[in-house]
Design brief:
The complex is a heterodimer of chains A (about 70) and B (about 475). With about 70 residues, chain A is mainly alpha-helical. Helices cover about 60% and strands about 0% of the residues of chain A. Chain A has 3 helices and no strands. The longest helix of chain A is centred in the middle third of the chain and has 21 residues. Chain A is elongated and about 50 Å long. The termini of chain A are far apart. With about 475 residues, chain B is of the alpha/beta class. The longest helix of chain B has 26 residues. Classes of the chains: A mainly alpha (about 70), B alpha/beta (about 475). At the A-B interface, helix 1, helix 2 and helix 3 of A face helix 10 and helix 12 of B.
């Protein structure tokens, strides 16, 4: 997402253009987080198991090991 | 006789049960202490003395009639100002909600009520629970009873300060990135972030529901465990709450106190949590691990999975969810937010639906990797709660300035990834740093392993004797204290 796209999203969300410091800080923070996300994306498997996060907590909760 | 508010919750509850103290005695004492410390610590946002005294009188009446008593009968508590009670205002630490009257009572409060607790009012907090230092430009900064110039930690600032200041025996807080554990650490009390889903969030202010956890702060592990046991467990009003049975963590804490830790494997992270610790924190951590080892635990070095990226994933989830909640107000009432809270909410608008979904899909995968890498080797991971000694309010009064993001990242370095992983974590005191402020040990366990954390924490607590230390600016200062 480019800085211009982020500025457009902020403008839409706030109803007016963000201040320069707000825009710059938001771009920097969002880019940092999205970079981390991008590094992790290759781990996602298209055919991942359907169990969600809560189910995974429950599964791992018995003794710390995944059930067969 | 010493003031019962200087002792433990469980001891006071036992005294009430035996008739040595009345609920009214405790309520009056707590209200006196609140009146004493409020001008210097600014812990409360609202105080309801009349209701607390009426509830105390009713509690004493029930006891006189021989009715069964709950485990918190006559115990004065106060809670973060985001726990709703029907008909009362909950400001959520904000200007925007300054007159918002709740139309429900939170499940956690209802359970404490049913256990006999007295509710004295609402405590200071960071605006909308977005803040880790305890600053609040709307209601005034909350102050630390160890040193009013230093931060209380946030966002459950008043919960940490009021408990440490001996005004109440404990308080509820909330934790989305460290907001129970950080105030617990900096104020020298015990705080539990439960497993995600262990405690119902119904009737409490949401920040980022997939990460929000409600939990207790108290001065001892046993007190904290009692409060947790009462609020934990499934609630139909929060369908995401776990149906798993809740073991008595209070029993675990009581059994752990004074006992050894033989057979327990405790992990020492070789990276991330050990990165760039303040020298004082490193010394305290080394000493804490030595103490755990002396108690019989085996300390094992464990390498960490990709926690820097986990913090990024936490930011995406929290940002997207918080932006969704706050979108309408950010558009209509931008100026009513503090600059720092605004600045921290805005990145949430820069994440796409795909970003949020990917961060959510990665969550079970990351949890499995973490569990495989860490909990295949150890039972509990021991880390600092905060990697730095408590800074001053002035040092962290950064608003939305350039140094703010780095300061937030530094303070929450050790706590934030745990929320993404959904794991339970207990923060308890591990001593004082060179500036005279407490620092915290964070024990992280497997999902739903709160009892093990309390058992281990109680053994550590008994070994180090921190409970006897009294903050210099606590209530009852005229007593002199035993610092």
């Amino acid at each position: 997402m480019t800085p211009e796209m982020i500025e457009a999203l902020l403008t839409e969300a706030l109803g007016s253009a963000p201040s320069a410091p707000d825009r710059e800080r938001t771009v920097a923070l969002a880019t940092l987080a999205r970079d981390g996300l991008d590094r992790c994306r290759p781990l996602i498997d298209f055919d991942e198991e359907i169990a969600g996060f809560e189910a995974t907590l429950e599964t791992l909760g018995d003794d710390g090991e995944e059930k067969a | 006789m010493s003031d019962p508010l200087d002792g433990s919750l469980t001891a006071a509850a036992a005294s009430v049960e035996k008739g040595e103290l009345s609920a009214r005695d405790l309520a009056e004492a707590a209200l006196r202490r609140l009146e004493e410390v409020q001008p210097r610590l600014n812990i409360a946002i609202s105080i309801d003395a009349e209701r607390a005294l009426a509830a105390a009188a009713a509690a004493d009446g029930r006891q006189a009639k021989g009715e069964p008593l709950g485990p918190l009968h006559g115990i004065p508590l106060m809670h973060k100002d985001m726990y709703y009670r029907k008909g009362d205002v909950s400001t959520c630490g904000s200007r925007i909600r300054a007159e918002a009257v709740a139309n429900v009572t939170s499940t956690a409060l209802s359970r404490l009520d049913a256990a006999g607790a007295l509710d004295l009012g609402r405590l200071n907090m960071s605006e909308f629970a977005v803040g880790l230092s305890g600053h609040n430009i709307h209601h005034g900064d909350c102050r630390n009873p160890w040193s009013p110039d230093h931060i209380t930690g946030g966002s459950s600032s008043g919960s940490g300060s009021a408990t440490a200041a001996r005004v109440v025996f404990g308080a509820l807080g909330s934790d989305t990135g460290g907001s129970i554990r950080l105030p617990a650490a900096v104020n020298g009390v015990v705080g539990l972030k439960p497993t995600q889903g262990r405690v119902s969030r119904a009737g409490a202010m949401p920040l980022a529901p997939s990460l929000d956890c409600l939990g207790p702060l108290a001065r001892t592990t046993e007190d904290c465990a009692r409060l947790f046991d009462i609020i934990a467990g499934h609630d139909p009003k929060d369908p995401s709450s776990s149906r798993r049975k809740v073991a008595s963590t209070e029993t675990a804490a009581r059994e752990g106190a004074g006992k050894g830790l033989q057979g327990l494997k405790i992990g020492k992270p070789t990276s991330y949590f050990e990165d760039a610790l303040d020298p004082d924190i490193k010394v305290a951590m080394d000493w804490a691990r030595k103490t755990l080892e002396d108690l019989g635990a085996e300390i094992i070095e464990v390498s960490m999975p990709e926690l820097v990226d986990i913090s990024a994933l936490q930011n995406v989830l929290m940002g997207g969810e918080a932006a969704s909640r706050h979108g309408p107000w950010l558009k209509a009432r931008f100026a009513d937010y503090s600059p720092q809270v605004r600045a921290r909410l805005l990145p949430g608008f820069a994440y796409s639906a795909r970003d949020w979904q990917d961060a959510a899909r990665l969550r079970p995968l990351m949890l499995r990797r973490f569990a495989r890498q860490v909990f295949s080797q150890v039972d509990i991971l021991a880390t600092p709660t905060m990697p730095i000694s408590a800074p001053t309010l002035d040092e962290t009064r950064l608003g939305d300035g350039q140094g703010m993001p780095a300061m937030i990242a530094r303070i929450s370095h050790c706590t934030r990834p745990i929320n993404y992983l959904g794991l339970p974590a207990l923060s308890l005191p591990m001593g004082l740093t060179g500036n005279g402020l407490p620092c915290g040990l964070q024990l992280v366990g497997r999902p739903f392993a709160e009892a093990g954390l309390f058992r281990t924490g109680a053994a550590f607590e008994a070994a180090i004797g921190f409970i006897g230390l009294r903050p210099p600016h606590a209530a009852g200062a005229a007593l002199g204290g035993d610092r």
